[in-house]
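Possible regression after last week's pipeline update?

I re-ran a chain I had predicted before the update to compare outputs. Posting the input and the new output here so someone can diff against the archived version. Not blocking, just want to make sure nothing changed silently.
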Amino acid sequence: MTPPFDSTLALRRDPYRFIQRTCADLRSDSFETRLMLERIICLSGANAARFFYDRETFTREGAAPGFLKATLFGKGGVQGLDGAAHKQRKAMFLNLVGPARTDDLTQQAAECLADMLRKRGTITLQDATEEVLTATVCDWAGMPVPSEKLPDCARMLSNLFEHAAPVEPSHVLALLSRRRADRWAAQKIEAVRNGDLSPTEGSALSVVAGWRDADGTLLAPHVAAVELLNILRPFVAISAFLTFAAHALATRPGETEALRADVTRIPHFVQEVRRTYPFFPLLAARARRDTTWCGRDIPKGRLVTLDIRGTNRDPAFWDDPDAFRPERFSDWQGDPYTLIPQ
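New output (post-update):
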């Protein structure tokens, strides 16, 4: 078997399993094809992940498709940086979202969700958790959203990840929401810099508004807005993992009782949800230099993708990889290349 000349439609039909299935058919952990007519090399598996994450060999700069920059990531953000510039900007995020900084955020979100359940009784989980997480993270970030504007704000942020890919007409919602979100966040940044808004010192809004890159200059307002949204949007996107977790509980009899009986099982359950329910199908990078992988030539500049679902289910590292078994994490050694958790 050989891959089709262009795999755009095949990937569209089965985005999460296309690479792994093609690799299995070819009995290889890599193959070359085209996406939107661009030549591309697809990789799958933990060993491929080790290769893919070698920053001397690959760069993220210029790898993300334009539609993701226009919706999910925004333009000028940390996802498009590399090397020292990436490390400098990433330090801002690590300072803001480390475990010590998010304990209160987690507790507040749990309390808000419990309060919503008490008031409404029945909820649509994905929609409800988007609202809960939007309210919580915006308040934590120093930019609380009035209750009457909360549903609209939650939809604006969730559209960025729910409709990021241009495979349905709803992609237009993501484009429009991106413009609105960038304007909204930029206005907050400029209000802080002008002295019209005084968020709590150390809050996300305060830190991003005052952050300076390695050259000592403040982030341009539109870049600061993108980075502020890079804090808010991923937290709202956790709503998807809450929905995944609920699905795992609903479709696996006995799992809820097992978690209640043994709370030490909860982290293992969470990891198994992350392993078996990937958020996106693949990651992308470009080769910095001419290289090879298992005999396959990869020229400088070639786009390379890593299959997330297939890597997380690599049978060389996971026993019975398609089975949902949280206990597998009780003795997991934490190899970051066998689990791409996003």
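Follow-up from reviewer: compared with the archived run. Residues 221-250 form the longest helix (30 residues). Marking as no regression found.
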